[in-house]
Amino acid sequence: MKIGCAIIGSGNIGSDLMYKLKRSEFLEPVWMVGIDPDSDGLARAKEEGLKCTHEGVDGLIAGMEEGEIRIAFDATSAYVHAENNRKLQEKGVVVIDLTPAAIGPFCVPPVNLKDHIGKGETNVNMVTCGGQATIPMVYAVSSIQEVKYAEIIATASSDSAGPGTRKNIDEFTQTTSNAVANVGNADEGKAIIILNPAEPPIMMRDTVHCLTVETPDEAAITQSVLEMEKEVQKYVPGYRIKNGPVFDGKRVSIFLEVEGRGDYLSKHAGNLDIMTAAGARTAEMFAEQMLAEESSKPHAANH
Amino acid sequence: MSVKGVKIKLHDNALRDGMHTVRHQFTIDEMVRLAKALDDARVDLIEVTHGDGLGGASVNYGFPAHSDEEYLQAVVPKMKHAKISALLLPGIGTVRHLEMAHNCGIHTIRVATHCTEADVSEQHISYARKIGLDTVGFLMMAHMAAPEKLLEQAKLMVSYGANCVYATDSAGYLLPDGVRERIACLREGLPDDIEIGFHGHHNLAMGVANSVAAVEAGARRIDGSVAGLGAGAGNTPLEVFAAVCERMGIETGVVLDKIVDAAEDVALPMMESPTRIDRDSLILGYAGVYSSFLLHAKRAEAKHGVTAREILVELGKRKTVGGQEDMIEDVALDILRKKKELKEIA
Question: Looking at the complex, does the CB of residue B56 fall below 8 Å from at least one CB of chain A?
Answer without folding.
Answer: no
